[in-house]
Amino acid sequence: MKLPRLQTAFETNPNKDFIRSKYDKPWIEHWHHERGMLLKYLGLPAREMLDILEWQHFLGRFTTIEREENEQHLMFLKANVKDVEHRLYSLYGEFDKILLAGRDRYGNTPEWPYDLVNLDYFGGFIYPGLARPKALKKLIQNQGTYESSFLLIVTQHLRDGDSIGEKREFLEDLRRMLKNGIYDNALHPGIDEIIDWYLGANIPDAARQGLYLNCFLRDCGEAEQFDVKCRPAIVYSGTGRSWMIHFTTEFRFKPGIGHRASSVQSLVELINLGLREVGNGKFVEGRFVQPQL
Ligand SMILES: C[S@@+](CC[C@H](N)C(=O)[O-])C[C@H]1O[C@@H](n2cnc3c(N)ncnc32)[C@H](O)[C@@H]1O
Fold it and tell me: Closest by alpha carbon to 71, among 45, 41, 108?
């Protein structure tokens, strides 16, 4: 399945600048202090490398992924001008193919493991063939193999290609899982109410997608022995007025266990995280109000 090409060159905008410098940066600083070292970065910084430059005091080496050769070339020029070229290692190609195959278009491999992964790509998450969910799962498995905690940032277009009903199927599975875990039948109507709300066609897909991806990350992380801490998904209007959705998630490896991890953040807490919105370069409250479990 070939994914749609939405844009070629990336231009930033005030909402993205706010998220990069006012929202993610403090989390990255916190992660840097918690890990007690410079963070090894894997991500898609584009030619301007605005994320790397904004966070550079917390970063050690960085591996970049880029599918456009001219963007890659301009990225090298920028790295040279900013005197960070010696810390740069580049991979060419589609990020999901690189993560799945374990090598880029020229046979170069990522330098596993990483402390900070910033997957900031064009397009949505779900398309027939599910290449992106499979690629993210592979990334989390790789980090698990190295028993390495990491901070994962994902930014994608809100509009996806979920013609296969993946989110609907997920919500039905979540309904079953919650009911199976709660023996008191008197509490089941509350579960039906919230799942039916998420299934409702007239709610913004952002709510469904926020819940879907956070549950997906938690599920893949716990299977690889990570304690996963999710944050509310953030929606914002990006370049060309396309709606974007942004996730920042901590994966802390739990050494010395052979079983699946169970996160400190409960599933109910995760469901109740809901959505936030950034507009005009700041948080805007009140547009996405969702029922709580
Ligand atoms: C949104 S920009 C990154 C912006 C940067 N992280 C920042 O904070 O300013 C995404 C970059 O990755 C490239 N890109 C987008 N989708 C990709 C994909 N599926 N695989 C590889 N590169 C991709 C684009 O060409 C672009 O240069």
Answer: 45
223/262 Cα distance (integer angstroms):
9
Distance from the alpha carbon of residue 123 to the mean position of ligand 1, in angstroms: 10
Residue 8 Cα, ligand 1 centroid: separation in angstroms? 9
Per-chain mean pLDDT for the chain: 94
291 alpha-carbon distance from chain centroid = 24
CATH hierarchy code of domain 14-163+205-284? 3.40.50.150
Instruction: Report, as an integer, the average pLDDT of 270-286.
Output: 95
List Cβ neighbours of 132 (8 Å cut-off, separation of 6 or more): 96, 124, 125, 126
**In the chain, what are the domain boundaries?**
14-163+205-284
Name the residue at shortest CA distance from atom 18 of ligand 1.
94
Question: Do residues 242 and 6 make contact, with C-beta atoms less than 8 angstroms apart?
Answer: yes
**How confident is residue 7, by pLDDT bands cut at 50, 70 and 90?**
low
Q: Is 121 in the pocket of ligand 1 (CB under 6 A)?
A: yes
